[in-house]
């Protein structure tokens, strides 16, 4: 009598990495006008850019074990 047993084990690992990059740019403009009196106007503009990058890594490991037992 021969008995064969097969066992399969699958392991899946998923890793997700998220990277966020924010860039801020500020621009200031000053304008001075003189006419009997002095008038100063300041304008500030701020621009923000956000970039998000997501990386997903999946690792799958499959292990198969076969055991054969022979009985006479």
TrEMBL record:
Residues 1-72 are annotated as: Disordered. Keywords: Receptor. It comes from the Eukaryota. This is Putative t-cell receptor beta chain ana 11. It comes from Lutzomyia longipalpis (Sand fly).
């Amino acid at each position: 009598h021969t008995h064969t047993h097969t066992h399969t084990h699958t392991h899946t690992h998923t890793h997700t990495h998220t990277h966020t990059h924010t860039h801020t740019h500020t621009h200031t403009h000053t304008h001075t006008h003189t006419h009997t009196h002095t008038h100063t106007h300041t304008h500030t503009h701020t621009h923000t850019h956000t970039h998000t990058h997501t990386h997903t890594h999946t690792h799958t490991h499959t292990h198969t074990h076969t055991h054969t037992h022979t009985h006479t």
